[in-house]
Design a protein that fits this description.
The protein is about 35% helix and about 20% strand. With about 450 residues, it is an alpha+beta fold. It starts with 14 loop residues before the first helix and ends with a helix. It binds glutamine (GLN). Keywords: Ligase.
Length: about 450
């Protein structure tokens, strides 16, 4: 996938890709460090100009918290200055569920035309490039879980009931699922699976893997599509990590596979379950950074309502083959697919994590493992919650302040992000942790329910 240039291009003809689009308005989005997708829009006739000169956006968003309250960091935040949102026209897509609209993800540039150091999508693209320079290619996909309900004065009325994974549940959402899948596919994503899930009013959809930056783009557009199609059916969709603190929540697990020029590195090799040494070192790097990765991908105070034992949310700092309680699950292919289907799944993430920061951070963590030739420790299977006091398996951070502390300590993520982005993300996470330190589970549910 072509990446955005270091400087805003002063020549070239952006109208070519625009002409193929049948829309009147274009939503140009970015995801902030709190994981909120924010947007500016332009009439289609202004899009070529926006691609050339950008759309103005305040740098204050770099340190916005998920509740829209502003903070100021060591480098960024505050009321002054301006950035330019440059839509990536290579990703311009008609929004099939919002007639007359198209969408493009943006990267942020400064007013003098250079790439903004703390741009989240630019960070992801930089890590893809670092992997390429090391001879590695990644393929990634987010799983998407959400709950369907109706908002009323009690907060949330579930739109469906019935047993987990039950045919009864599917019957309630059959027409909805058919419409959603068709809409998602019309927008260029390939749906792999839809099913009723385990938690309250929850369903899940998975899409085919993609280049890491495109996988993050897919997550943004898919979540918007889910909300729009749900509204067409008279429901609201919430991707918040928890709507019922007494039960399982919604995750945004990240699957990835790793390849060199010679083929897959997680299959067909001499290591555990066919991993090649480079594949195992990459996983060991991801495993090492998991405590800090929680702050990136599940660091909202409400994330910790979901990150509880024995709910398949991946709270344990370990890896294991098909281990659904481990934060890093290794998935081998079934017979006949072993050569290509093996992948790893980071389970602890949820939809409050910025998908661009997640893919970029996982790559950075893995590349550090490869550079240091790390080896994987022994795998852990079963549920560590039942292992008893002699177990050495530790829990990942259990609240947002602890997760932020681990991110502060991560020299790997600090180096990959650069000081501006690392500090801005920490500023947001610390502000949220501080502000909601004494919040009850019910308050956290209500604060996040319709924001993600
Ligand atoms: N099937 C599953 O893996 C369920 C995942 C679970 N809902 C989570 O919180 O991540």
């Amino acid at each position: 996938m072509p990446t955005m240039p270091e400087r805003i291009p002063a020549d070239g003809d952006p109208t070519a890709s625009i002409e193929k689009i049948d829309a009147e308005m274009v939503a140009v989005s970015f995801v902030d460090n709190a994981g909120i997708t924010r947007v500016k829009s332009v009439p289609i006739g202004r899009l070529a100009r926006a691609a050339r000169f950008g759309i103005g956006v305040s740098p204050c968003f770099e340190t916005f918290a998920f509740d829209d309250l502003m903070t100021v960091g060591g480098y960024l935040g505050g009321p002054d200055g301006d950035l330019r949102l440059i839509p990536d026209l290579g990703a311009l897509t008609e929004i099939a569920c919002q007639p007359g609209w198209a969408w493009a993800p943006a990267e942020k540039y400064t007013q003098d035309g250079t790439r903004f150091a703390a741009c989240q999508r630019g960070f992801a693209a930089r890590q893809v490039e670092a992997a390429r320079a090391a001879g590695l290619r990644l393929s990634m996909a987010f799983e998407t879980e959400w709950a369907l309900g109706v908002a009323d004065e009690t907060g949330f009325v579930p739109a469906l009931d019935g047993p987990a994974y039950g045919m009864v549940r599917l019957g309630r959402v059959g027409e909805y699922a058919r419409t959603l899948v068709a809409t998602v596919e019309r927008q260029g994503m390939s749906v792999e699976q839809f099913h009723p899930e385990y938690a309250l009013a929850q369903v899940e959809l998975s899409i085919a893997p993609n280049d890491p930056v495109a996988a993050a783009d897919d997550a943004v557009l898919l979540r918007h599509t889910i909300r729009q199609v749900s509204a067409d059916f008279g429901w609201r969709a919430t991707l918040a990590p928890s709507i019922d603190p007494d039960g399982a929540g919604s995750g945004a697990h990240l699957h990835f596979s790793l390849h060199s020029g010679d083929g897959p590195l997680l299959a067909g090799g001499p290591g555990p379950y066919g991993m090649h040494p480079t594949g195992a070192a990459f996983l060991a790097g991801v495993l090492r950074e998991l405590p800090a990765l929680v702050a990136v991908g599940a660091g909202n105070p409400a994330s910790f309502l979901r990150l509880r034992p024995s709910r398949w949310a991946g709270i344990w700092h370990c890896w294991g083959r098909e281990a659904r309680e481990a934060a890093l699950r290794f998935v081998t292919g079934v017979r006949g697919t072993e050569d290509w289907a093996a992948n790893a799944e980071v389970k602890c993430f949820d939809a409050t994590g910025n998908p661009y920061l997640i893919v970029g951070s996982v790559i950075a963590a893995g590349l550090a493992g490869v550079a240091e030739e790390l080896t994987l420790p022994a795998e852990v299977t079963g549920d560590p919650a039942t292992f008893g006091p002699e177990s050495e398996v530790t829990r990942l951070p259990a609240d947002s302040a602890e997760a932020a502390g681990r991110l502060a300590d991560s020299t790997v993520l600090a180096a990959a992000m650069g000081p501006e982005l690392h500090d801005a993300l920490l500023t947001v996470r610390r502000a949220e942790a501080e502000r909601y330190r004494g919040a009850t589970p019910r308050e956290l549910v209500e604060l996040t329910r319709w924001r993600f």
